[in-house]
Amino acid sequence: MNKYILSIITCFILFATTNSFAQKVGYVDTQSLIQAIPEVKEANTNIETYKAQLQKKGQEMVKALQAKYQDLERRQAQGDISPKQLEAEASKLKEEEATLAQFEQTSSEKILKKSETLLKPLRDKIQQAIDDVASENGFAYIIDSSFGVILYADPSADVGTLVKAKLGL
């Protein structure tokens, strides 16, 4: 019996000690925050417009290159071009292909850069609001629940509404 009481007291002491070191943890769904911010929608629209402009220019370059290849094939079939001229023209078209490939690569880089330029300030704004909520409410940790890292979460620990309020949403 004494062992039983002693083990209960030991468990109680361990539990009390553990709770005295407990830290306040909150969670927030950053994906829903991102979707709620009007500036993000505007930034995404700007990025998509820019992407469409670059794609249109790329498509125009492809069509022009295809037309040149077709014209070269037509001239060859009709015998309007010598083998030496054909080789020179084909070489020029290969250079244009390389230019087109370079355009496609730089376009992707430009889209990523524009995305980073437009969205980074918004991510920083969200992070600052989360930092403010954490310090104002005594949270030791705030976990992003949008990435599925939480196995259990007390709904009262959701700080999403506090962060939205801090963002003015």
The gist of it:
77% of the residues lie in helices and 5% in strands. With 169 residues, the protein is mostly helical. α3 runs antiparallel to α4 (83-137).
Counting DSSP E segments of at least 2 residues, the number of strands comes to: 2
Overall pLDDT metric:
84
Strand arrangement in the largest pleated sheet: 1-2
The domain count comes to 1
Shape: rod-shaped
The biggest beta sheet reads: 2 strands, parallel
| Uncertain spans | 4-20
Work out the helicity level: over 70%
Rg: 31 Å
Q: What proportion of the residues form beta strands (DSSP E)?
A: under 5%
Oligomer state of the chains in this structure: single chain
CATH architecture field: 2-Layer Sandwich
Order of helices and strands: HEHHHEH
**CATH class bucket:** Alpha Beta
Number of continuous helical runs:
5
Could you give me the name of the CATH homologous superfamily? Skp domain
